[in-house]
Amino acid sequence: MRIVFMGTPDFAATTLAALIAAGHEMAAVYAQPPRPAGRGQELRKSPVQVLAEQHGLPVLTPVSLKDEAAQAAFAAHRADVAVVAAYGLLLPQAILDAPRFGCLNIHASLLPRWRGAAPIQRAILAGDATTGITVMQMAAGLDTGPILASETLKIGHEMTAGALHDALAEMGARLIVETLPRLPFEAVPQPAEGVTYAAKISPAEARLDWSQSATLLERAVRAFAPHPGAWCQLPDGERLKVLKAEIVPGQAVPGTILDDQLTVACGAGALRLTLVQRAGKKPMTAPDFLRGVKLARGTQLS
């Protein structure tokens, strides 16, 4: 098929690579414009743009698709279909209607559960046992379009958002490659029941609130790993990222260090921090961290 691909981060790059490997004709690739990144705040191209340029594909990075010129340029690609994965821009109706088979979106949840920006993190935070990929026909509204294909994935007890992201990216790439040759076929409307919304993750959410239960905090550690990273404050005010943790028995005032293994009391139960990271340092195990930072039993974290 003649395809316009629209995506920006690593999740989307996995799909683009699969479409290229499947032999489809890539009419154009749309991605978010390069953004300032790193300490020097130099402009950095997205993973999708980098991959597309490596394959000699034409790349467009408009800041909006709302004006008539951008919409006319999109229609001029004369695509059979647009494949969209984590693109990051709202698609006006004129864009949705331009390709022969419309625009198909690869969404990292089993719709209608977790419509919105952060379905992977929200599924882990909620303690969902399963999630998956949905390929939907895009329509007006936030992830409301009818479903063309879906596949379920079990969320492992120790699975982080990073690991779940990678597994779903591979699943989504495979599912869209399997779906395209079947077009056109009738999509199934999403159920009216079971709708939830995956709001964008705010930096404040990543701070561990020790008054919560160890169960909820362990989910937060996994949901925010590797980015933005769950964190707490040491007594001197230094921020400490928590990359891995496990639930263990224990009881005290929430935030109290209970032993020499970096076990912290929670609102219910306790959390043993097994992999942490200080600002500007590499991740380290709790024993390595405690050799450099002395935290006595009874010390309070916040």
Could you describe the 3D structure shown?
The chain has 302 residues and is of the alpha/beta class. Helices cover 25% and strands 26% of the residues. The chain has helices at 10-21, 47-54, 68-75, 93-97, 119-125, 161-179, 214-223, 286-292; strands spanning 2-7, 25-30, 35-37, 42-44, 59-60, 81-85, 103-107, 115-116, 130-137, 147-154, 197-198, 230-233, 239-248, 263-265, 270-278, 284-285. The protein has a 7-stranded mixed sheet with strand order 5-2-1-6-7-9-10. The mean pLDDT is 96.
Strand order of the largest sheet: 5-2-1-6-7-9-10
Distance between the termini: 55 Å
Q: Which descriptor suits the 3D outline?
A: elongated
Structural class: alpha/beta
What's the average pLDDT? 96
Please name the defining characteristics of this protein.
alpha/beta, elongated, 8 helices, 302 residues, seven-stranded mixed sheet, five-stranded antiparallel sheet
Would you spell out the secondary-structure blueprint of this structure?
Blueprint: E1 2-7, H1 10-21, E2 25-30, E3 35-37, E4 42-44, H2 47-54, E5 59-60, H3 68-75, E6 81-85, H4 93-97, E7 103-107, E8 115-116, H5 119-125, E9 130-137, E10 147-154, H6 161-179, E11 197-198, H7 214-223, E12 230-233, E13 239-248, E14 263-265, E15 270-278, E16 284-285, H8 286-292
Parallel strand pairs: 1-2, 1-6, 2-5, 6-7, 8-11
Antiparallel strand pairs: 3-4, 7-9, 9-10, 12-13, 13-15, 14-15, 15-16
